[in-house]
Design goal:
With 195 residues, the protein is α+β, with helices and mostly antiparallel strands. Helices cover 24% and strands 21% of the residues. The protein has five helices and seven strands. The strands form two sheets. Strands 3, 4, 5, 6 and 7 form a five-stranded antiparallel sheet that branches. Strands 1-2 form a two-stranded antiparallel sheet. A hairpin with a 2-residue loop joins β4 and β5 (163-165).
Length: 195
C-alpha cells in the first residue's frame, strides 16, 4: 500500500491526504499515516503554515510498483544507517555500514557542491549497480540540496533507440548531510522483488 501511495504522490506531485485516500480507497487516518511515513523517509516536506506539503524528490523521478525487497547482506530492516533503531519509518531495507553509509566527515567540513554530492553518492552504490552489463547500460542521477541535506536519486537505465529507458530497472536514494555524511542509503524496489 505504501509503494502505491508513493507512486501516486510522485506522479501527481501532490502529497495530499485526501488524494491518497480517494485514489487508494482507504480511510483518512491510514492515508495520513502514509503521508507521514513519506515525510519521515524524506520524500515529502513537513506540513507548511498554509497546510500544504511539497514533494522533495526531483520531478519525473521515483518508481514504486508495490513490490518490496528482502534484506540482504550489508542491509538491514528497518533502521537508519547510523544504527539508530526504530528510525526507519516506512523503508523496509537500508544499506548500512562503512561501505554503504559512512559518517566519517567532520560536521564543520566544507559543504559539498552538487557535482561532489553526485560523485560521492555513486561511490555508495553496490558494485556493478550502474553496469554496464547485459541489463543495465548506466545510471542517471539527480541531486538537490533541501533543508541542509543532499537528496540524490540514482536510476539505472538501458539505452533503447538512443534514449535512457528506466522501465523495469532499479533505483536508489542516497541522502547525505551537507558535508557528505550518509544519513540514509535506501535501495529502490527492484522489479520482481518479493515482500
Amino acid at each position: 500500500m505504501y509503494d502505491q501511495a508513493v507512486a501516486l504522490v510522485l506522479k501527481t506531485r501532490r502529497p495530499s491526504i485526501s488524494l491518497v485516500q480517494r485514489h487508494l480507497r482507504i480511510g483518512y487516518n491510514r492515508a495520513a499515516r502514509l503521508i507521514e511515513q513519506m515525510e519521515r523517509a524524506g520524500l515529502v516536506s513537513a506540513m507548511q503554515a498554509n497546510g500544504n506539503r511539497e514533494v522533495l524528490v526531483p520531478a519525473g523521478k521515483g518508481r514504486a510498483d508495490g513490490r518490496g525487497a528482502a534484506p540482504r547482506a550489508g542491509f538491514s530492516s528497518p533502521r537508519s544507517c547510523d544504527g539508530a533503531g526504530g528510525a526507519g519509518g516506512p523503508v523496509e531495507v537500508y544499506r548500512e555500514g562503512p561501505r554503504y553509509c559512512p559518517r566519517d566527515r567532520a560536521p564543520g567540513a566544507r559543504v559539498l557542491a552538487e557535482a561532489e554530492a553526485l560523485a560521492h553518492a555513486r561511490t555508495l552504490l553496490p558494485d556493478g549497480f550502474c553496469g554496464p552489463d547485459r541489463r543495465v547500460d548506466g545510471c542517471d542521477a539527480d541531486a538537490e540540496l533541501v533543508h541542509d541535506t543532499w537528496r540524490v536519486y540514482v536510476h539505472q537505465y538501458k539505452l533503447r533507440e538512443a534514449r535512457h529507458d528506466w522501465q523495469g530497472l532499479d533505483h536508489t536514494y542516497v541522502i547525505l548531510d551537507r558535508v557528505g555524511n550518509c544519513i540514509a542509503n535506501i535501495p529502490g524496489t527492484p522489479e520482481g522483488g518479493g515482500r
